[in-house]
Amino acid sequence: MPESTGKSPEQLDRLRRRAAFLRELEEARALRDRIAPRRAKVRQIRAAMRRATFHH
């Protein structure tokens, strides 16, 4: 990663840790969806309803 991005080593380390955390979170969600598909389907339907009824 080039240093010309203007980010300090601390910021880069934080971004790397955040990316790893988000990858692990996505893996955990995928595993949970495989284990409990009915619950996953209900969660997807509820999320879709929230998106459909959201107003600014």
| Proportion of strand residues | under 5%
Strand tally: 0
- Structural class category: mainly alpha
Biggest sheet overview:
none
What is the arithmetic mean of pLDDT? 89
Helix content: over 70%
Run of helices and strands: HH
The rounded distance between the terminal residues' Cα atoms is: 38 Å
Number of helices: 2
- Spatial shape: flat
Low-confidence residue ranges = none
Structure report:
This protein is mainly α and 56 residues long. Helices cover 77% and strands 0% of the residues. The chain has two helices and no strands. Helix 1 packs across helix 2. The longest helix has 27 residues. The protein is flat. The model has no long low-confidence stretch (mean pLDDT 89).
Task: Provide key terms for this protein.
single chain, 56 residues, mainly alpha, 0% strand, flat
